Amino acid sequence: MRTLIVYYSFTGNNDILANDLKRRLSCDLLKIEEVKKRNGFTILLDIVFNRDARLKPHKVSLLDYDNFIFMAPIWVGRLAAPLKTFLKNNRKEISRYSFITVCGGVEGQKEKLTRKLIRLLHRPPEIVTELWVADLLTGGKKGASVKTTGYQIARKDLVVFEDKIQEFLKVNQLKAQPV
Ligand SMILES: Cc1cc2nc3c(=O)[nH]c(=O)nc-3n(C[C@H](O)[C@H](O)[C@H](O)COP(=O)(O)O)c2cc1C
After folding, report:
1. What is the pLDDT of residues 46-77, one digit of tens each?
2. From the CA of 26, how far away is ligand 1's center (Å)?
């Protein structure tokens, strides 16, 4: 299987995860980049008007890959607009895929994200995994309320998510290197 990680990150959390998985899997990495620098206001405008993002063209031939790992933050219960636009633009070249995100953490949003991915790509993901910043801040304690938006993780924080990451990699039938 030839795997490509395709990711978008606004504040760096998914960047850290993408580079960690790239290192473990020794696979290729494609960062989705926008034409204009984004801010909190344009995040909200894109959501309110259901707008697509304007992406810089990428130079990777997706047809060279048969397994995709997509990664992006969640904004107001939705896939970040740059990833959504990438998936819409490239649907026909995308085969087997999975989705993983470092997000704030909201109960029940995973099902909604899975439905959205199926609508966009016309096929189900192998696995959808959420790594909740909330779990980092509360030690996984249910019901504890913390402010997660804007929190920036460090690479060492990924240790907390190791079980979920291993499960994600296993479903991808990929042999992962230890941390
Ligand atoms: C405007 C905004 C809305 C957000 N909404 C959600 C949300 O609905 N659910 C969630 O789990 N996280 C939400 N988050 C948190 C981000 O998904 C989280 O901070 C993520 O790790 C950021 O990833 P990045 O650093 O790669 O951009 C939101 C963040 C922002 C800025």
Report:
1. 999 999 999 999 999 999 999 999 999 999 99
2. 27
What fold does the segment set 3-171 form as a domain?
A: Rossmann fold (3.40.50)
Q: What is the pLDDT of residues 99-157, one digit of tens each?
A: 999 999 999 999 999 999 999 999 999 999 999 999 998 876 776 677 888 899 999 99
What is the C-alpha to C-alpha distance for residues 165 and 160, in angstroms, rounded to an integer? Answer: 10
Strand spans (E) along the chain: 3-7, 28-31, 67-71, 74-75, 78-79, 96-103, 128-132
Domain spans, the chain: 3-171
Query: Which atom of ligand 1 lies nearest, measured to the CA of 78?
Result: 8
Query: What number does the ligand 1 atom closest to the CA of 132 have?
Result: 11
Distance from residue 144's CA to the centre of ligand 1 (Å): 18
CB 24 within 8 A of CB 42: no
pLDDT at 150: 87
Calculate how far, in angstroms, residue 73's C-alpha sits from the geometric centre of ligand 1.
5
Give the residue whose CA is nearest to atom 3 of ligand 1.
75
Any residues with Cβ below 6 Å from ligand 1, and which?
Answer: 9-15, 43, 73-77, 102-106, 109, 133, 148-149
pLDDT band at 174 (very low <50, low <70, confident <90, very high): low
CA 97 from chain center: how many Å?
12
